[in-house]
């Protein structure tokens, strides 16, 4: 026989789920998600060039760590079931830590091609110094004593935490985004019709891929500046930056053509 407290705790998830479904049904006609707006623009016969994008959280750069954590969790789980040997655990931990360190550096620092080349030259210089002194082999052997062992549940928890951060960023991007067309830019700032339209003469855009490591992950930034200097520029971390920059350039070309055609011919 369940007590009142157990019944309440058991019913909480269903109440939350039912409330969410009811809210969605009531607000279905007023919710303006990024996907819905993209469909509306795509079906508009007067708009041939458009771009709908949003600002990703930098935690999306940890996607390689998420996959590495899932694979490590699987391997460590097989070790604990005696399918693999225990010697694989420190090796997997070292590989996972290396991937996580690279992700951390990409997230924390802006590394241009110039800085990356300087770092590579420094590593080569240190290697040649160690080679000249005959210390390369002892230096490599020292890494064998570094053993990182994490339980399979620990790897799974790490993957879950980063996945939740990425998912929250995606869900937020459904309601906070920008839609750029040849005639205007719409800045959406809420789940309903809360937004602002800015004419094409009132803003300018540029693509920033100065962070080389960030670009290797397929990400870059679209910078939007406004003619009204009282407004702060918008910086959007976008995925597939190469494809999105091509769309943006196409829109710019369409704007340039419109402005050229809008100039009335002068009489001789």
Outline the fold blueprint.
Layout: H1 4-27, H2 34-42, E1 51-53, H3 63-80, H4 88-108, H5 113-133, H6 136-141, H7 152-173, E2 176-180, E3 184-189, E4 195-199, E5 203-208, H8 212-216, E6 219-226, E7 234-239, H9 241-262
Antiparallel strand pairs: 1-2, 2-3, 3-4, 5-6, 6-7
Helix pairs in contact: 3-4, 3-7
Structure, described:
The protein is α+β, with helices and mostly antiparallel strands and 268 residues long. Helices cover 55% and strands 15% of the residues. The protein contains 9 helices and 7 strands, in the order ααβαααααββββαββα. The chain has helices at 4-27, 34-42, 63-80, 88-108, 113-133, 136-141, 152-173, 212-216, 241-262; strands spanning 51-53, 176-180, 184-189, 195-199, 203-208, 219-226, 234-239. It has a 4-stranded antiparallel sheet with strand order 1-2-3-4. Helix 3 (63-80) runs antiparallel to helix 4 (88-108) and helix 3 runs antiparallel to helix 7 (152-173). It is flat, with a radius of gyration of 26 Å. It starts with a helix and ends in a 6-residue tail after the last helix.
Helix percentage: 55-70%
H/E order of the elements?
HHEHHHHHEEEEHEEH
How are the strands of the biggest sheet laid out side by side? 1-2-3-4
Query: What do the pLDDT scores average to?
Result: 80
- Low-confidence stretches at least 5 residues in length (pLDDT < 50)? 256-268
């Amino acid at each position: 026989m369940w007590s009142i407290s157990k019944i309440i705790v058991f019913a909480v998830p269903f109440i939350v789920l039912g409330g969410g479904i009811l809210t969605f049904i009531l607000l279905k006609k007023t919710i303006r998600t990024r996907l819905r707006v993209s469909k509306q623009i795509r079906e508009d016969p007067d708009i041939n060039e458009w771009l709908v994008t949003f600002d990703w959280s930098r935690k999306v750069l940890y996607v390689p760590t998420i996959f590495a954590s899932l694979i490590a969790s699987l391997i460590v789980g097989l070790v604990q079931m005696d399918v693999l040997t225990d010697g694989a655990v420190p090796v997997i931990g070292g590989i996972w830590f290396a991937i996580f360190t690279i992700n951390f550096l990409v997230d924390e620092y802006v590394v241009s091609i110039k800085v990356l080349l300087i770092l590579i030259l420094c590593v080569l210089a240190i290697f040649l110094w160690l080679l000249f002194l005959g210390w390369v082999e002892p230096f490599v052997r020292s890494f064998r004593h570094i053993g990182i062992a994490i339980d399979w549940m620990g790897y799974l928890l790490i993957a879950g935490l980063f996945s939740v951060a990425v998912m929250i960023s995606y869900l937020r991007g459904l309601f906070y985004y920008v839609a750029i067309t040849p005639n205007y830019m719409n800045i959406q700032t809420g789940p309903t019709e809360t937004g602002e339209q800015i004419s094409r003469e009132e803003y300018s855009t540029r693509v920033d891929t100065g962070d080389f490591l960030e670009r290797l992950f397929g990400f870059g930034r679209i910078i939007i500046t406004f003619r009204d200097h009282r407004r702060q520029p918008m910086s959007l971390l976008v995925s597939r930056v190469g494809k999105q920059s091509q769309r943006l350039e196409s829109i710019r070309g369409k704007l340039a053509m419109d402005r050229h055609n809008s100039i009335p011919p002068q009489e001789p």
